[in-house]
Amino acid sequence: MSELSTPSIPRPTPLDIASGSVLGHGARTPSLTAADRPVPASPLAALEQAVLPALARPPCVVSFSGGLDSSLVLAVAVRVARREQLPPPVPVTWRFTDAPKAEESGWQHEVIRALDLAGPWHRLSAGDDLDFVGPVAARLLHRYGGVLHPGNIHLHLPIIELAQGGSLLTGAGGDQMLAGWWRPARTMRIRLRRALAPAVRAVLPPGRRRAVRALPWLRPDVATDCHRSYAAEVRAEPYRLDRRIHWHLGRRDLALTCASLSGVGADHQVSVVNPLLDAGFLAALIVRAGRLHTPTRQQLLTLIAGDELPAVVTAPRGKATFLEAFVRRHARDFITGWDGSGVDEDLVDPVALKRVWSTWPIAPGTTALLQHLWWVTRSERAGGVPPGPTRAAEQPIAAAPE
């Protein structure tokens, strides 16, 4: 890996970064019905086939949070490794200090215990380390020359470093394929309820008022367009499972996520496998449940796992949120010292953004801007040229199995 080469990974556009949303379609939808690929007997059998190549390329590391998607992937990988007499998968878990909403350690221990996993379990500890502009994110931004999508992709960097030369199994795609139908994000609803300043209410028609409430850091015309695009995308999501799966497979959001994971993995000679996006698995799921309208996540997990996996793997649980784990001291320090420069003023109103950032925690939709502006500031300090890329594996976070 040359120190002077920067791997080419598709990036979010300036509008994606400014709005905090990657909307629209554009990815080529893979075929789920190839004539030369028989559909597996069941979705579980298909998942077993999907994880097998990763297990055959040790070390096989699993990004394991204790949530439903990563628990399912880990359980299937453990099952296949034992049956095929392959080295067991190695779960790697982040533990966050002072971030109670990201706490999932109880479920993590329950799943590990139920799987009777005898091999190592790496637990990485993060205080301010995983801040959106903290030391781990900084290494990734330097290495790849700017913002990747999603903004928390850096949490996988130390995990990928642990898998150097092997493979990584993730739960990517679970939110799209299994998690249920879109609803306006809670943060979006909160913004929509905020009262506008009297001067803004006086000059903007109702549609633009809603947009400015939702995305107050954007120029009004840009906010209006983004708000309409977001609403149109929510309305466009199909209700029937088979159509919904195909629809999500073509979304830019998912395509950029997978490209980032694959690109960072390839840079470390790591094969990244996302079993919940495997064509065989999705084809089998469509055969079994494709005609269902708005099935719940629990229905789909029960259909997939049946009684073949420990009950705790698919037991209902609350979904952790991670904003407080990623917006910490480094973000606060940068925001406090930010002078309003570096934004694309055709898209973003720097005064309005400064106002939005005057409250804590910051709006989730501005975290990509936070990373971008941090990167621009560092580039300017280097004389207008981005700092040279660094080897992503030069400063790995130490992790010892416990």
TrEMBL record:
<protein>
    <recommendedName>
        <fullName>Asparagine synthetase domain-containing protein</fullName>
    </recommendedName>
</protein>
<dbReference type="InterPro" id="IPR001962">
    <property type="entry name" value="Asn_synthase"/>
</dbReference>
<feature type="domain" description="Asparagine synthetase">
    <location>
        <begin position="46"/>
        <end position="228"/>
    </location>
</feature>
<dbReference type="InterPro" id="IPR014729">
    <property type="entry name" value="Rossmann-like_a/b/a_fold"/>
</dbReference>
<dbReference type="Pfam" id="PF00733">
    <property type="entry name" value="Asn_synthase"/>
</dbReference>
<feature type="region of interest" description="Disordered">
    <location>
        <begin position="1"/>
        <end position="22"/>
    </location>
</feature>
